Amino acid sequence: MNKYDLVIVGAGAAGMLCAVNAKKHGIQRVLIIDKDPVLGGSLNGCTYTIDKDRKITGNQYLAELTEEFKKHDIKVLRNTMVLKIDEHGSAVCLNSTEGLHKIVAKNIILCNGAKEKGRNSIAVTGDRCAGILNVTMAKKIFAMNMIPGKNILFCGDDGIKRIINEIKKSNVNVVGVVGENSYGLTDNIFNGYEISRINGRGRVEEAILTKGDEALKVKCDTVIFAYARISDGIVAMRSGIDLNPLTTGPRVDKNYMTSRENIYACGDGIFIHEYIDDIENECENLIRFVFDSNCK
């Protein structure tokens, strides 16, 4: 059984930054694990700026980070789910080649990132029909040179900036935004309303919006949930790690250690960061502490 000095769960921005910093600090055996076939997480397809100076998009940042990543001897395990960290501190993993297996690590960093709220998490009733998506799903459809729908209603506005360029370049009609800001995509802003029901036979046909006793019908063929993302604390929860109820991610101390010794967490997995600059600083400080503590 291979044993690593550092195992990083998640190969988004935080995971890749931790891996690169670890190698720069001289940590020898580093493994990064991700459920996807490609590195980068939400940086992939990110066309808006992510730094404080508004100079670099997620796509551009990923290209630069990938070049730096390739300079170092970092082992990558793709298409692999980390189910939990067991009581002995081993990562319990699942993939199609090795099945269920364990990876032993001296230190583990959880960089699970964020997840999106969807229909199930906000208790919207109605028909089970096509055309109900989150932003990530919609972006994947655009990436295949297709459109998710012709008449789109956004539920929530925080995630619109993640897809605004694709919307503007496509021949789609934004019929409304249930939120405060449409980012110039439509004049139909339903501030203070909630989607209470989605109706459709086979495909979305309308959404019922409510505000107190008032109810509106909005005709559309697609509903995209664009609420603010929340931290993904699933692996931490399964591992018996204390969660932060305010962020839904693992609770960490000033050194980014969780409630379990030698298991750390950082990035959007502990709270949603507005700028990549802050994640860079976080990863650098975490790796410095890990190295100084038990990797020298």
Q: Mind explaining what this structure looks like?
A:
The protein is an alpha/beta fold and 296 residues long. The protein has two domains: 3-115 and 229-294, FAD/NAD(P)-binding domain (3-Layer(bba) Sandwich), CATH 3.50.50; 120-225, FAD/NAD(P)-binding domain. It contains six helices and 17 strands. It has helices at 13-24, 58-70, 135-143, 164-169, 234-238, 276-294; strands at residues 3-9, 30-33, 75-77, 81-85, 90-95, 99-110, 114-115, 125-126, 132-134, 151-155, 173-178, 194-199, 206-211, 214-219, 222-225, 230-231, 263-265. The strands form four sheets. Strands 1, 2, 3, 4, 5, 6 and 17 form a seven-stranded mixed sheet that branches. It has a four-stranded mixed sheet with strand order 8-12-13-14, with no helix packed on it. The chain has a four-stranded parallel sheet with strand order 9-15-10-11. The radius of gyration is 21 Å and the shape is elongated. It starts with a strand and ends with a helix. This is FAD-binding protein.
